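Bug #77: duplicate submission created two jobs. Keeping one. Sequence:
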Amino acid sequence: MFGKDKGVYKLVLPTLESPRELERLSLAELNNLASEIREELCLLYDHRSVHFASNLGVVELCIALHTTFDFSWDRLIWDTGHQIYPHKLLTGRFNRFATIRTKGGLMGFPNPEESEYDLMMTGHAGCSIGTALGLCCGDDLIAGSNKRHSVAVIGDGALSSGVVYEAMNHAGGLKKNLTVVLNDNKMSICPRVGGLSDHLDRLRMHPIYSRVKQKLHSLVDRTPIIGSSMDSFFGRFKNAIKAGLLGGMLFEELGFRYIGPIDGHNIARLQRFLRMARSLEEPVLLHIFTEKGRGFRPAEENPTAYHAPKPGRIFKTSFPVSSVEDSIAPYSSQYSQSSPVASSTSQPQISFTEHARNAIELLMRHNDRICVITAAMCQGNMLEPIRDQFPDRFFDVGICESHAVVFAAGLAKAGMLPIVDIYSTFLQRAYDQLFQEISLQNLPVILAIDRAGLAGPDGPTHHGVFDFGYLRPFPNFVVMAPADALDVEPMFRFAEHLEKPVAIRYPKANATIVERNPEPIQLGKAEIVRNGNDGMIVVCGAFLETAVEAAKTLGKNLDGLGRVDVGVINARFAKPLDTDLILQPLREGKFLITFEEGMLIAGFGSAVLEAANDERLDTRRLRRFGISDHYVEHGERAELLDDLGLNEKQLVKICREIMFR
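Kept job's structure:
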């Protein structure tokens, strides 16, 4: 099944059903397997936008983990989870790997429904250590002497998250047999920031310490068994070096045995030190160095650009061809069957994200009070031009959303006007700070909420569908949603002068333009885009074009039942609500349909329903369009909208049913 035949390497991945089968492979074969995995990743990238550089960097680590532990019994938690692809290939999912990040296919993050080896659906950073510690304690209570071992793999970018230190402080006190693998590649999605990154760089770069570590590793590698006395000697010797050169180790002060730093691309060395960590009856932090984008030179040189790049034909031209390329090539057809290559000649429209960035940039040119805060998402939020033009007023706080909001409160109290640019799904991590530091203090902070709505192939961990619900209850907050490109800049200009907490939420989508003469933005005022005698569709967010097209279709009497004269309202505000305009159709006995890209529970439609109830209006002709009480799978945004019925066809159908039932 494995090995070589007439000098040709027999592929492992297509036949691999369980990581336990890796025990049969020699070290040389494991290194060939690493090449197979990288080539498979490049085949995938050839056809689809995927998380790329991060996965190239953890190949050897993943192999070492699965050849050291039995994770059908032991526990493995991948922090953030976007570097899960090699793990999926090693756990029997090769035959479905071409479907990753496509509707109905494998998820781009861990998914317990796919495999017993995926314990948690992780998509947000910083929670792996706490989860692994909980598993460790639970297993000890239930399994007793039949011990399981828990391993958490966390990147140096996620290590800046405050919840990490809450978990490490707890773990250090409990003294559980927990291993934390710190995957240090000097990156999160963008280059990491902060004092902790400087601390890690000193570990990486100190020449004396590095030379001593290399000699120690060489000696350890030549020592078959490390006895307790020898291990104690090495421990004391390393601690003396660390104390003398680095002023003590942060991790050891938290109660962890620190091992490292070691080469994260050396499978044999990783296995040896993972075995050592497994044998120690205490929390261990194994610090490894890896290279994001390893094996694909463009990604090595620019890992930020290759975090989740657009697909491109790179397999035959750019990837360093190994001995297994000719063997693996026949399997490439599965990728072209599942997802065509994106056209290189298409000219994409400008996204809401770019419109928001341009609006912020314009404000900053004319207002020295404005500053921008992001939480490790400079690239995702397209903020690089702002970072470069206004370095003194640009703050990347790392993966620390709670701190970003608290920091913004301090800036606002000092007289600045901070704009916090964060994805909707990540802003949830700062819920308490939105309440106490922003809303309760009534501070002028602008939240630029990106990825509000369906985030496409990133799936349920990243869909930003809860923000209406978690922002509406807060007093003092103003919540807005641009309907198209014409709304974006005016909303930011309006927020600049409001001197209140303001949230502007917009989707991960291209921004269309609905032809009209936009009315000026006024607090709590909606905009009539089209009048209608039979009923109105009120849109809060980026469905304005869909609603207008549905209204045009309804006016054509296509089914012979008659025309439906439907108007369209651009709500603009979810809070405060323009009840005078929006509820008028119900007052006149007409139908009213609300349309939003968010959860129906506590969403915009619920706000309209609550307002109608407050006026004691008849709501039998009110319909709410949005997302019902379930998590939405991954897939392209258009596919998901169709599945949810958030499209022109369903809108037309409901309007006709209301009129002609």
